[in-house]
């Protein structure tokens, strides 16, 4: 039975071995059937510290890590050792040249295992170098003197590295100096007096250099405070200074915060030693202990002013004692005062003494107060509103000792007399009062004067009351301008002198204002609007010696530039766009030499009024007849119409405003016309030309102002000089005529 069991076990075992062998052979067969589709290679041989391979180094397959990837798989796997014989390297040694790398071609030539049936080729770049390390040297230039604990300056250490350089022509040595930021030193500071062995490390390599240090000798301590210190006080550490004295007698100051102090409190009179430490160095200083004593006193009086002869209360005096340790103490007893009474009116100096030390306080002495006063008024009648003269009041003060005196430093309950009749006035002195009565008479106007500063008016124009100054003179000799006057009328009803009368305080005053004929507006006038492409104006016409009757109509029609440009060019010797041309017709009105129309046109703001004129053209081409007329206001041009037809208002550069005349003899108020450029570029000069028409002054004087001199300046002769872009207001004044005109001028940068 046992043999059968053994035989059975052997049979089972053989079957199991056969199954495993069959399984292994199947697996090997499966591996052999895989095809290689990719190859990778990595150099793992000898490299320097920078990862470079030295030129001339032989290249062997054992210096590489090869991996392959089978078809259908994502991961690379190591190349079997059995396949290394199919790896070919080209070149087979690192080339000797100056380049920093070279290209290595790796070929796998077992075509039976590649998917393509061809060689697999992989090219890689391997960094290389033609230098290898020989030795490293360091030296110290001795530029600085170091003491124990001082930081070593790396810039004083020179590190040189020697390399061998391999070239096709042979090998040679190369020496390089390494900058201080590329190497490290240990230790970094001086640790001993004398030679210090310093390790210099660069790229893992080390060398040594000797740096000499000087050691300390002792700790020198000084004290700048008061040598006499009160017992119980501490020595002031801020006044303790310490220096390290080295072997060569040089010194180095130690920060106060780096010092350790012992025995700072002075405990007894006499010499006292303070110990000062820094590291392993120890020094000391000696001060003198003294007993606590009074150094000075300060006295202060806290009471009230005292009447002369009064006794001083010592409890109202506080004494502050300052001791020699600078501590302080306040006392209210134990001191003496001298003198003990107030002897005079005003400041009294009192001496306070304590333990031989003195101070003074000031106590104000006041006079003895009176028990009563009397007041008598000796002046005359006062006008309402006047101030009472105190010299006309006699005030007498009576004292407890029976004496009396006249005083002048009294006060009054009221000083301005404003109640007609008997004015009650209370006199006050030293909190005592007495009453007087002052006769007061009413304030009356004795004279009235009226002056009008508004200049001449047009007929039917009203006065500007703001320009009427009415001055009243009173019975107290004073005078003042008044506003609550009455005036009979404010309208100038006639051409020539108009007399006006004002009344105030039962007094009257008269003044004369000249009036000129009224302008042609309102009743008897015809109006129409005329315009060009860019400008517009209002035309007002008045038929001389005849009120406009129903049925007479003023009709106008604007004329295009092309229809009138020939006539315009004949006037200006060139074209102008500053014009307004219109056809005028008056229906049901017959012109003749005695029947004509007076007309006015408003001048557009864009026109220069000093250059404006009005023309009549019968053919709109060759003939241009300047009409009699001229400016009658800064923006109003008057002319005369003798027939219907074509009219043009325009700028004429040859026009002379100073020669203009009006046909009628109507008087006009003076007015000013200013020729000024309203728009100028930066850094440009332009002259202002002002005129005053209908002025009685032959030689008018003009002044000029500008509100922003950072943008523009104006000379005394009216020349504008622009400086920067912006908008300014220019004001022109005619001094003799009292006329003013203001204009806005825009300053622009030149286009680039």
TrEMBL record:
Residues 686-738 form the BIG2 domain. Pfam families: Big_2, Big_3. SUPFAM superfamilies: Invasin/intimin cell-adhesion fragments (SSF49373). Residues 382-440, 461-514 form the Ig-like domain. This is Bacterial group 2 Ig-like protein.
């Amino acid at each position: 039975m046992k043999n059968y069991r053994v035989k059975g076990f052997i049979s089972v075992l053989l079957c199991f071995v056969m199954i495993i062998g069959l399984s292994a052979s199947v697996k090997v067969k499966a591996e052999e059937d895989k095809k290689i589709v990719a190859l990778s290679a990595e150099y793992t041989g000898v490299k320097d510290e920078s990862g470079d391979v030295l030129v001339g180094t032989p290249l062997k397959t054992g210096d590489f890590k090869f991996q392959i990837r089978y078809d259908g798989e994502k991961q690379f796997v190591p190349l079997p050792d059995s396949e290394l014989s199919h790896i070919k390297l080209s070149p087979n040694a690192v080339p000797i040249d100056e380049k920093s790398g070279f290209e290595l071609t790796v070929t796998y030539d077992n075509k039976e295992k590649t998917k393509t049936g061809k060689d697999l080729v992989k090219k890689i770049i391997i960094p290389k170098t033609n230098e290898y390390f020989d030795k490293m040297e360091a030296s110290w230039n001795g530029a600085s003197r170091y003491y124990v604990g001082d930081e070593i300056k790396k810039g004083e250490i020179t590190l040189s590295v020697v390399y061998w350089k391999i070239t096709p022509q042979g090998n040679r040595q190369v020496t390089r100096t390494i900058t201080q930021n590329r190497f490290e030193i240990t230790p970094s500071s001086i640790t001993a007096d004398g030679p210090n062995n310093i390790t210099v490390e660069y790229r893992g390599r080390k060398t040594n250099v000797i740096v000499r240090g000087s050691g300390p000798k002792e700790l020198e301590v000084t004290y700048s405070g008061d040598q006499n210190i009160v017992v119980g006080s501490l020595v002031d550490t801020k006044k303790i200074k310490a220096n390290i004295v080295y072997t060569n007698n040089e010194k180095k100051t130690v920060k106060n915060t780096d010092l350790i102090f012992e025995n700072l409190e002075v405990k007894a009179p006499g010499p006292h030693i303070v110990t000062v430490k820094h590291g392993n160095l120890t020094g000391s200083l000696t001060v003198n202990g003294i007993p606590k004593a009074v150094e000075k006193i300060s006295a202060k009086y806290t009471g009230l002013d005292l009447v002369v002869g009064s006794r001083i209360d010592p409890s109202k005096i506080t004494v502050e004692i300052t001791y020699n340790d600078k501590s302080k103490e306040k006392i209210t007893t134990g001191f003496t005062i001298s003198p003990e009474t107030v002897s005079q009116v005003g400041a009294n100096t009192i001496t306070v003494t304590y333990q031989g030390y003195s101070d003074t306080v000031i106590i104000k002495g006041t006079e003895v107060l009176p028990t009563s006063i009397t007041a008598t008024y000796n002046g005359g009648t006062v006008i309402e509103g006047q101030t009472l003269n105190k010299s006309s009041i006699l005030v007498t003060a009576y004292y407890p000792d029976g004496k009396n005196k006249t005083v002048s430093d009294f006060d009054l309950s009221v000083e301005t007399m404003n109640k007609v009749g008997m004015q009650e006035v209370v006199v006050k002195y030293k909190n005592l009062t007495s009453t007087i009565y002052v006769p007061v008479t009413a304030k009356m106007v004795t004279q009235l004067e009226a002056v009008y500063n508004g200049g001449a008016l047009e007929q039917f124009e009203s006065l500007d009351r703001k320009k009427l100054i009415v001055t009243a003179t009173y019975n107290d000799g004073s005078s003042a301008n008044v506003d609550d006057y009455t005036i009979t009328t404010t309208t100038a009803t006639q051409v020539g002198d108009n007399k006006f009368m004002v009344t105030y305080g039962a007094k009257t005053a008269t003044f004369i204002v000249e009036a000129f004929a009224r302008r042609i507006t309102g009743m008897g006038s015809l109006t129409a609007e005329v315009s060009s492409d860019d400008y517009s104006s209002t035309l007002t016409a008045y038929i001389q010696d005849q009120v406009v009757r129903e049925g007479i109509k003023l009709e106008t029609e604007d004329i295009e530039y092309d229809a009138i440009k020939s006539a315009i060019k004949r006037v200006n010797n060139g074209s102008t766009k500053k014009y307004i041309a219109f056809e005028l017709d008056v229906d049901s009105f017959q012109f003749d030499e005695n029947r004509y129309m007076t007309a006015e046109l408003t001048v557009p703001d864009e026109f220069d009024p000093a250059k404006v004129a009005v023309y009549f053209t019968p053919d709109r081409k060759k003939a241009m007849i300047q009409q009699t007329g001229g400016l009658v206001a800064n923006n109003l041009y008057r002319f005369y119409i003798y027939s219907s037809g074509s009219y043009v208002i325009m700028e004429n550069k040859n026009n002379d405003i100073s020669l203009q005349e009006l046909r009628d003899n109507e008087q006009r108020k003076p007015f000013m016309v200013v020729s000024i450029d309203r728009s100028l570029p930066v850094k440009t000069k332009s002259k202002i030309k002002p005129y005053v028409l209908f002025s009685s002054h032959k030689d008018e004087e003009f002044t000029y102002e500008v509100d922003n001199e950072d943008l523009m300046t104006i000379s005394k002769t009216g020349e504008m000089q622009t400086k920067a872009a912006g908008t300014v207001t220019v004001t022109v004044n005619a001094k003799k005529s009292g006329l003013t005109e203001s204009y806005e001028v825009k300053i622009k940068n030149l286009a680039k």
